[in-house]
Every structure is written in C-alpha cells, then in structure tokens.
Amino acid sequence: MDRRSKLTLAKVVIALLLVLVLASLSAKRQAPKLLLHAASRGSIPMMRVLVRLGVDPASNAAGAYPLYAAVSHGQHAAAKLLLEAGSPVDSLEPDGATPLMRAAALGDTRAVELLLAHGASTQARMGCGNALDIARANRQDSVARLLEQVIGARPTAPSR
Prior knowledge:
The protein is mainly alpha-helical. The chain has helices at residues 3-41, 44-52, 66-72, 76-84, 99-106, 109-117, 131-137, 141-151. It has a single domain, classed as Ankyrin repeat-containing domain (Serine Threonine Protein Phosphatase 5, Tetratricopeptide repeat, Alpha Horseshoe), CATH 1.25.40.20. It starts with a helix and ends in a 9-residue tail after the last helix.
C-alpha cells in the first residue's frame, strides 16, 4: 500500500471513529427515551440491555418515569424489572401522581399488588386524594377493597 492510500485509509478510519463517538453521545441522550418506550411496550430484552448499559431506571429525563409508563400500559413484567433495577416505587409524575395511583385509577389489581409488595405508599396524595380515593372515584371496586385491607379504611359500597 502506498503512502497516499495509507493516508486515505487513515482518514476513513478517523471519520468512522468520529461517527461512532457522535452516535454514542446521541445514544446516551436518547437512552432514557428508549427505556421509557421499552417500558410502555413491555420490551423486556430491550429494557435489560438498556439497564445493563447504565440507563438509570430512576430517571425521568424523558419527561416521565419508566415505571409509571409500564404501569399505565399494564406491563407488569416491565414494572417488576424496573422495580428490581432500582426504580423508585413512589416516583412522582409532574401532576403529583404515583404509579400506585395510576394502577388504582385503571383498576389494575395485579399492578397494585406488585407496587404494594415493593413498598408503595398508600398515603401519598395529590389534588384528588390518595390511591384509595382515586380507586373509589373511578369505581374500581376490587382495587378499592384491596387498598382498604392494606390501609384499614372503611369499606367501599359496591358500584351500581
């Protein structure tokens, strides 16, 4: 290989390295969004890779917490993975809602049980009340009864 070809090859290698560095920097900025999206879709393999690569499951850099997204979309396995990876069980969304409140509003007993098993607070409140108040307001009777048992509150009358 002559000197000119070596220089051209060196320039190509340097250009490729620069592209890889820029792509890596862009990926780091996009990683929280990828985790949020993967959580909402229940893409467990993608979530595992992102967490192993160091994406913080406790971050709301994408505008919302991945745990809240998983709970909002009924992705129980994703929620469990996030909790085990260190996602805060009582993370507050901008409106003050916690994942437990979201699960209560949706009537998702399985998510409520998962969150409670990981220490979710039944006392966290926002403008419309705590998780029990939200379950009652949304006529999610099975979730309300479960929360009443945990809290020791007065029973909810069945919805009509």
